[in-house]
UniProtKB/TrEMBL annotation:
Domain of life (superkingdom): Bacteria
Designated name of the protein: Iron-sulfur cluster insertion protein
Length: 89
């Protein structure tokens, strides 16, 4: 698994971890999609079945059953009506 954090997204993720008092950012399966799985990005704890990478001091985890999908991804954001929307490219 290879996932990086966009420079302009680092502060958003740090704040997310602080607000939720947790240790990692999780790339979680949200359901099937037309082009493969759909994912969501959440603050979460690390489990025994996770693959873990670290970028810019933040641990990024994904369950081993889906982690092989992420060979060269970046967590970034866009500004939505209610604030930043995290996305995986």
């Amino acid at each position: 698994m290879k996932i990086a954090i966009a420079d302009d997204t680092l502060e958003i993720l740090q704040e997310m971890l602080k607000e939720q008092n947790t240790e990692a950012i999780r790339i979680a399966k949200a359901g099937p999609g037309c082009g493969g799985i759909t994912v969501k990005i959440i603050a979460d704890k690390i489990t025994d079945n996770d693959e873990i990478v670290e970028d810019k001091g933040i641990k990024i985890v994904a369950d081993k059953s889906i982690s092989f999908f992420f060979t060269d991804a970046t967590i970034s954001h866009t500004r939505g009506l209610y604030g930043p929307i995290l996305k995986l490219k």
